[in-house]
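Q: I have 125 residues here and want to know how they pack in 3D. Can you give me a structure?
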Amino acid sequence: MTSWIERTPQTMATHFKASLLYLGFMSAWVYGFANTERHIPGVVMLVALVLPMLLHFGVGFAMPREETLALLAYPPFLALVGPGVDTALWIPLVMMMVFPGAPLVLLGLFLRRRAEPREVEDHWF
């Protein structure tokens, strides 16, 4: 059984894939869920709100760098400039990226750094 760290090595390919997954999912989420004005069943709404939380944690875990937080600016920016998106949507998206988005990315980043083996230099003494 392989661990999560072995599945997501810290390479440019992993960072590229995680970034594309985030941008694609959040684009679909903004256009398909956040921008809708229809009635949505409670179960679907719960799933649609939990999936981005898992995605934020996963992106922070896959890309354990502080620059990952820059991805959080994408959904509000998309709401401002995206065609067919209600421009008033950017305000709740900013709030959602600040909390719970940023803490979940930081939690993933923190847990990844804690789980990785640390190299200790020989001349520490």
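Q: Anything worth noting?
A: The two ends are 37 Å apart (CA to CA). The chain is about 65% helix and 0% strand.
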